[in-house]
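Q: How do we represent a protein-ligand complex in a form that can be generated token by token?
A: Start from the inputs.
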Amino acid sequence: QTAAKARPNLYLVGFMGTGKSTVGRALARRLGMQHLDSDRAIEEAQGRPIPDIFAAEGEAYFRKLEYDFVHSGHPESNCVVSCGGGLVTAPGMIEELKRRGLVACLFASPETILSRTKGNANRPLLNVADPAQRIADLLAEREPIYLQAGACFYTDHQPMVEIARHIERYYFR
Ligand code: S3P
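Then emit the structure tokens for the protein with shikimate-3-phosphate bound:
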């Protein structure tokens, strides 16, 4: 029997709380690909959780860790990669992901994002007095970048497994 053909990596980008991790896991299972999560990979390599990295070294340092993950921290094919929400904010990063594979963006309304991320202390950028305002500000800043993905999928009203099916159909059939 011949080895299965290599599939290009599929990068899931989008804001916090849009479902990148859940959809990524489901997609990888459906497609028989490896699932990677940039946040988890960085936490494992650093031996500490993201809030600790932000608190001790600052956001710019975390962005550098994300850059290193993309450029030298993961396999070149057969992976579904759930990317941290701010990973694509580095200059040239979305272009780099598109060179390396397929890029799908997950979207959700600010209200959905707020309800999905509420009370979760793992996201230092939303650990502020007015997370709704912070979400609005960051979304406005990042939307033009997210929209450069190959395709966008809205996750407000469907179960994440449905979203995974849509993405699979769009890219692999
Ligand atoms: C961030 C998103 C987080 C994590 C970090 C910063 C961001 O990942 O990388 O807290 O800047 O949007 P998720 O999108 O998986 O929550």
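The mean pLDDT is 95. Residues 16, 20, 39, 50, 84-86, 123-125 surround shikimate-3-phosphate (CB under 6 Å).
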